[in-house]
Amino acid sequence: MEGPEYDVVVVGGGPAGLSAALVLSRARRRVAVVDAGSPRNALATHMQGFLSRDGTPPGELAAAGRSEITGYGGEVVEDRVEGAERTGGEGSGLLVRLAGGRVLRARRLLVATGLRDELPDLPGLSERWGEDVLHCPYCHGYEVRDTPLGVLGTMDGSVHQALLIRNWSQDVVFFPHTLGLAGHEREELDARGVRVVEGEVERLVVDGGRLRGVRLADGTVVPRDTLFVSPRFVANDELLVALGCESDEDGSAEADSFGCTSLPDVWVAGNAVDPAAQVVDAVSQGSRAAVAINGDLVDEEVRRAVGERRAARGGDGGRAARAGRREE
C-alpha cells in the first residue's frame, strides 16, 4: 500500500543520511530516513577526530541525530529498502519499496547506504576486526601509540599505510604476505625504521580474547598487539545500479560535487560514493547534498507556480475578450 508523499526519502541512517535529513527538515521539507540498522562502524566503540565530538560512541551520535531530525518533524523508519521505481517519466517521483511492505512516494531520493569492508581471508582476522585489527591510523593510531604494531600487505597502498603508521610507534613490522615489494619501497620502509618480515601469513594468533601475534606459513610467530589491514571497500550501491545511475571508471556512482547522479531526482552522499570519507566528511557531504536538493525542489516549485499563474492569466484574458465581443 502506498504511503504519503515525501519531498525526500533518505536511504541510510548513518552520518551522511542523518545530516542531510536534518538540513532538509529544517528547510521545512517532509523527509523520511529509512535505516536498516546495520552501520559500518557498528564494532567501533568510539569515534575519533570529529571536532567537539572526539571520543563519542557512534551509536550516541546516531541517536542524537535521530532526535534532532524528529524534533523538526522528520521521520525515521526502521526498515530496509528493497527497491525503488519511478511512477512515470523523469520528474514524476519515485516509489520506494520497503521490506516491511510499506511503499513511500518521494519527489527526490538520497542514497546514503555507505559501504562494506571485504577483508583478506585469514583465520582470526575477521573475528578481531574493529578490536585489534584496524584499518585507519587517523581513527585508531593514537589509541595504540607506542605499542607493537603490524601492517599486512594486501594492496598497492599497504606500503604507504606502514609508512604512515610509523608516526604512532617506533615498533612497526610490515608483512608483505603475498605482495611483491619494489626496491624503492624496501628502501623507504628501511629508512623509516619499519621492519619487513617476509613470508606468507598463515593466521593471526589470538589468545585470551586479544591479538597476540601473526603466524607465518613456516610456523614463525611475530608478536604484535595490533594489526592494520587495508580492506577492499565495496559501495552498497545496489539501489543506484538498479535505478540505472551511471558509474565512473572505478565502478563508483557518477555524481557531481553536490551528489547529484546521472538521474536528476536521485542523489548520493557519504561512503556510497566516496570510500575515503570519514564521519566528518560524510556529515559535510550530507549537508551539501541536502542544500542542493532543497534548491532543486524550489526550482521545480517555482516553474510549476509560474506555469499555473500564466495559465490562470491566459484563462482570465480569454474570458474578458469573449465578454467584450458580446457587449459589441
Automatic annotation (TrEMBL):
Metal-binding found in the keyword field: no
InterPro entries the record matches: FAD/NAD-bd_sf, FAD/NAD-binding_dom, Ferredoxin-NADP_redctase_2
Alphabetized UniProt keyword annotations: Flavoprotein, Oxidoreductase
Domain spans labelled FAD/NAD(P)-binding: 6-286
Superkingdom to which the source organism belongs: Bacteria
Reactions catalysed, as given in the entry: [thioredoxin]-dithiol + NADP(+) = [thioredoxin]-disulfide + NADPH + H(+)
Region entry Disordered, spans: 308-328
A Pfam entry, by short name: Pyr_redox_2
Name this protein carries in UniProt: NAD(P)/FAD-dependent oxidoreductase
